[in-house]
Structure to design on (256 residues):
């Protein structure tokens, strides 16, 4: 059983091929980090997988009708712009829209999902604040909470830890890991390779070959981030240590 299945997925934007030939499956219980340098196509791949932009090949999720898709996958985009001054609580409640019929009032189950999401992201003190008055990090946590409240089997997030302080970065990654441990799946794009190595069960590394983004490696973090791939894809060296406190990854030098 796969929660996300892509076959030979490719995207051309403004006449330029961005990604090509992406085939992968994500199973329940996986916490997958999507990594790669700027411009490798991470955001494009996630948007194409969700059916938000035209793509060649096949995405089982993208092929579904929007209403059905919204009950299977929650999406947190990279943009943190919040257009209306609704309260944080109301913003998180918007995650329940896929579960409500036309004109249907929220149920105790909806309110319980919102309370759980607010608690998981530590937003209790901010619940009555206008979402447009949040800091960048607070807005990120509120949007993650909205995605959590959707209670879908798959959660996809584009750079969810960007702008968060270290404590909230770790907390957010632990939240995703806990969801995976419960049998859900998370696919998150990350630039912080240290967080990816420490928390993700699997990494998908995108790089450019022939001018197009493609999957360079896919597997456990230690198998993906080899010295040869770090040099080829990122142009860096790094220290990768296995300690009693878990794996540690630290980029060291630029090689080109």
């Amino acid at each position: 059983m796969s929660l996300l299945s892509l076959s030979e997925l490719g995207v051309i934007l403004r006449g330029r091929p961005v990604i090509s030939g992406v085939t992968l499956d994500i199973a329940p219980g996986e916490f997958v980090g999507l990594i790669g340098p700027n411009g490798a196509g991470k955001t494009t791949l996630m948007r194409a997988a969700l059916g938000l932009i035209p793509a060649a090949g096949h995405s089982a999720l993208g092929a579904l009708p929007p209403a059905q898709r919204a009950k299977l996958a929650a999406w947190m985009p990279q943009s943190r712009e919040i257009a209306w001054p609704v309260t944080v609580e109301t913003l998180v409640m918007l995650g329940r829209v896929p579960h409500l019929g036309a004109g249907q009032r929220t149920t105790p189950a909806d309110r319980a999902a919102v309370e759980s999401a607010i608690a998981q992201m530590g937003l209790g003190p901010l619940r009555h604040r206008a979402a447009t008055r949040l800091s960048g990090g607070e807005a990120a946590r509120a949007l993650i909470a909205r995605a959590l409240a959707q209670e879908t089997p798959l959660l996809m997030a584009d750079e969810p830890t960007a702008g968060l302080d270290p404590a909230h970065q770790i907390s957010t990654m632990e939240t995703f890991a806990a969801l995976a441990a419960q049998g859900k799946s998370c696919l998150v794009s990350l630039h912080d390779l240290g967080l990816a190595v420490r928390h993700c069960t699997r990494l998908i590394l995108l790089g450019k070959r022939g001018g197009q983004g493609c999957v360079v490696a896919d597997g456990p973090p230690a198998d993906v981030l080899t010295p040869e791939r770090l040099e080829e894809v990122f142009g860096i060296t790094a220290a990768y240590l296995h300690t009693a406190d878990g794996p540690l990854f630290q980029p060291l030098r630029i090689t080109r």
Remarks:
- DSSP finds nine helices and eleven strands in the chain.
- The radius of gyration is 18 Å.
- The mean pLDDT is 94.
